[in-house]
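S.,

Sequence below, as promised.
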Amino acid sequence: MRAISASKTSSPRDERLRVAVALQRISSNLIRAPHHSLGHGIEAALADFGETAGVDRVLVSSVEWNGFGATYRWDRGETALGPRAQETLKALLGQLALEETLVCGSPKELAVAALAGGTLPAHIGSGVFVPVRTERKIRIVLAAISRMPRSWPAELVQATVWLGDMVASALDRMATQSSVIKEQEKRFHAEAETRRLRDQLAHAGRVTMLGELAASMAHELNQPLTAIYTNAQAAQRFLDRRPPSVAESRAALHDLGQDCRRAGEVLGRLRQMFRRQETERVPLAVDALIEHVLKLLHEDAVARGVEVVLDIKHPLPPVRGDRVQLEQVVMNLLVNAFDAVTGLPGTREVTVRAFGRNGAAELAVLDTGKGIARGEQERIFEPFFTRKPNGMGMGLAICRTIVEAHGGRISARSRAERGSLFEVTLPAMQPAAEVVGGKS
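The prediction came back faster than expected:
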């Protein structure tokens, strides 16, 4: 029978002390081990215990198909098992219906417990088998095994049980922190997906809105194209004169160049609005943003007979945001205001106000339309809610999504005198220097 210690001269008291010190060391190492290296920590703990206890093999293994998916094992060098022997050992552990610690000092005892008298693998002579109880209720066994029959003192059996408790704590810690990491990853992916869907929704809204503005834009583009054609004909007529009128030809060609530049600006604004890109937060001058949108809508306002009043109170603080998305908000609000006054008798007026207050940039769009009906103020920003016969009901929902994503808020109400008032508040930058599209 093999002694528990590698040293034949050690007393039982010395052996108990060695095992107790090893357990303290194992406990300390497992507690200090970071989450990503707990698997290595468990294997090191099994090796430390195996060497100290003088056994040939220590392993921790799930005995269920849906177990924790890993077997932690230490083998004394000359007793390392091949793949087939490892599977045989795991199958044996699966047959142990352990409710409490099982101690077997000989193959015969273990055969009775596990195989009802069957034959055991040659590499198992005796062992202590401890049910490891984790919070996940998975059947796990810690086994300390010797190749030869031997006695297992009560102190060593208890030490093996304590080792099982330490391993259970480590496995629970691994599972808990893995769950936290998985939840964090899920939340990160969900937030990224939300941002992606929001950008897609905003892009779809821009395309839909620009489809409604196609006729107006075609008219705006038609003006410089007509002027280009007219100036080109005029220059040709001036050059056909006898003698040629060079000065007038130069003037016509200069105007032709200016008209070409204007047509390019129209196309550039269209291309910029249609382009789909990732959200880019940069410092923005709100007044420049408003003026750019008003240029886009100028021809639409003229065609509808709408008078646009611009009221910007400087200094206007800059904001940080995605320029295209915030321009989309302003454009949606203005197009809605144009729709509200189109076809009405009297003055068709839309006012755009912008000012700074309480660390924020505030934008307001006022119209002289019919106002917002009672009961609709709470629903007006809901998706698919619309008062327009051919509307999709997405414009204001998109506006709210974009504004709130920028840390701001948007609201709407009827004006006391006549029409509607839409207000957007965006947090101002602290403090900003030069910003995109001009200075604040």
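The CA atoms of residues 95 and 114 lie 6 Å apart.

Coffee later?
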